[in-house]
Amino acid sequence: MKLVIAGTGASGAIYLQRLLDRIDPRAHEVHLVLSSFAKQVIHDELDLLRIPDGVHQHGDKSMNVPFASGSAHFDAMVICPCSMGTLGRIAAGTGDSAILRAADVFLKERRRLILVPRETPWNLIHARNVCTLIEAGALVMPASPGFYSRPQTIAQVADTVVDRILDQLGMPPEDAFRWQS
């Protein structure tokens, strides 16, 4: 599977880290792009993002990335975490960064686009933007962790969301990821 994983400036960098930890770049082609605000939040919340060997990193300012064109086939894009500002700009159809352009390409090409907003509460504008994106074909998965499994660590709590993302990508545990603590 060819994947684009993006992170934006919403709190919740642990979700991005756990997603990267769990997708094996030896089995999947993984491209990563971070907004400047994502880098700031990662620094504040994690100090450093551990990027697995084999993950292709790209800048958000360049449109010279393979996933910013509909002629390059990618299977899915996940924006995790996705700020409400990013979500709103995608809903409005702006494409002035690699992340926004790629999201627009995934929508227009009818490819899987998964947005993982972490912000709460929502206002009416947020809710309307979410509805617009669902109607356009995106899958919006708010980062709402589950507690049925009685998670004991923050990583396990985050994994309840990451497991749902992986499931939507069609990646069963035995195929898609490796476990890291």
How would you characterize the overall build of this protein?
By secondary structure, the chain is an alpha/beta fold. It has a single domain (about 1-175), classed as Rossmann fold (3-Layer(aba) Sandwich), CATH 3.40.50. The protein contains seven helices and six strands, in the order E-H-E-H-E-E-H-H-E-H-E-H-H. Strands 3-2-1-4-5-6 form a six-stranded parallel β-sheet, sandwiched between helices. The longest helix is centred in the C-terminal third of the chain and has 15 residues, at about 155-170. The chain is globular, with a radius of gyration of 15 Å. The two termini are about 25 Å apart. Mean pLDDT is about 95; it is low at about 175-180.
Summarize the SSE layout with pairings.
Elements: E1 2-7, H1 13-22, E2 29-34, H2 36-46, E3 56-59, E4 76-82, H3 84-92, H4 98-108, E5 112-117, H5 124-136, E6 139-140, H6 154-168, H7 173-176
Parallel strand pairs: 1-2, 1-4, 2-3, 4-5, 5-6
Helix pairs in contact: 1-6, 3-5
Task: State the gist of this model.
The chain is an alpha/beta fold and 181 residues long.
Structural key phrases:
181 residues, 6-stranded parallel sheet, alpha/beta, Rossmann fold, 7 helices
Distance between the termini: 24 Å
Largest sheet: 6 strands, parallel
Number of helices: 7
Counting helices, strands and paired strands, the structural category is alpha/beta
Rg from alpha-carbon coordinates: 15 Å
Please state roughly what percent of the residues sit in beta strands, choosing from under 5%, 5-15%, 15-25%, 25-35%, 35-45% or over 45%. Answer: 15-25%
Strand order of the largest sheet: 3-2-1-4-5-6
Question: Regions with pLDDT < 50 over 5+ consecutive residues?
Answer: 175-181
Number of domains: 1
